[in-house]
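Researcher: Please predict.
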Amino acid sequence: MTRLSRALVPLLGGAALLLVHAALRHRQDLLAALELKPKTILELVLFLAALPLILGAVRLFDFLAFDVMISRRSGVRAPVLLREIVSLVLFLVLLGWAVYEILGYEVTALLAGGTVVAAVLGLAMQETLGNLFAGIALHIEEDFKVGDVVRSGEFFGIVEAVRWRGTRLRTYENNIVIVPNSLLARERIEVFPRNNMNARILRFPIDFDVPPAKVIPILVQAAENVEGVERGMPCIARLGNHGEFAATYEIKYFMADYAQRDRIDADIRRAVWYALQRNGIRLAVPVRAVERFRRPVSRAHPELGAIVDRLSGTDIFAPAPEAAKAAIANGARLGVYSRGETVLAEGEGGRSMFIVHEGRVSVRVDGHEVAQLAEGEFFGEMALLTGARRTADVVALTDLVAIEIDKDALQPVLIAHPELATSIAARIEERRASTVSHGVAESNDEATSVLMRVRSWFGI
């Protein structure tokens, strides 16, 4: 429906209601017979006829003023927001005149009596009014026009219309986005005017082995022949940067219609690819060597062979057969301790011994150091062999890796090799004598034969 037909339809409707009004004026007796007030009915019908007439008159004025006088004569397209504001003001003025002339109500009195209502409506519609005034400001400043490309925050597209509530944008995905005018007034707006020389920069990675003197003319020739690239402005190619794996070249070109940027960018990239291929040049890509991950060997978790070697270097286990050492190593546990951490506490129960694999420990009785043990030395053997309580504190002097051997790991070996208990007991007797000389207390139970206690503890 054209703007002229949109004006004629309400005019015809209003004319029809005027005919009804004229007919009722000649048959007021009919209204009286129906017990209706003729004057009131006639005023109401006349007011109803005035509404479409006012609407049609406003639309007719909009068509004549903007489409005929301004657009056709001066060639300037009036902004949609301006037309809507003029139409709204004219409609309200004519409506107020009709209320006063037909119904006899003073519009000024109605406005004065509705001050509170107007205040409430103003508060409720402050966002809408903000959009309206922001749209007026955008029109007055003329920062952008219909057909321009704008970017504001996350919104990017071609301006199709600026209305009283928001600006209509068509995105590059061909979607319609209505951006509130108040948001545009607050945000930073980047404008790419239509018929303006808007510049674009494209980047291409080229191998370092190709000299710039060969690459630059190829890029310029490929870009300047693409449709949409402005012929009046020179295309510029240059070596922009030395990257990690390639030299990055830049092409700067100009276009009059920024809305075509995606298509022009794609065409330039395609033209550059073919031009480079013809000249034996390839676009550089990063090359990465992929190596299969191998878990590093942890210092805190030695292999079984290292534990067997450590047992072989310990005097109480040195006489044991290799198979027995392997069985003990297989049942052993590894403990990792930080510097200053207490490994054993005096008086606590236990059933295991420890061999220092890495680091050093301090043996302390009543808070006084009586010995330091290094790699290969052991402690806590009486708890393992006899079930006795700990007789000293053992504290890590460095970060410590210790091999812990408990009763469950040693018992099957002693049952299979009973003679091993004798050699172990002999070495424990020697070690106990040395420990007593260092000040470690010996209980009455420990004075008993170590061999008897080992056999009793392990049930040999």
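Model: The chain has four domains: 3-113, 140-192, 198-278, 304-458.
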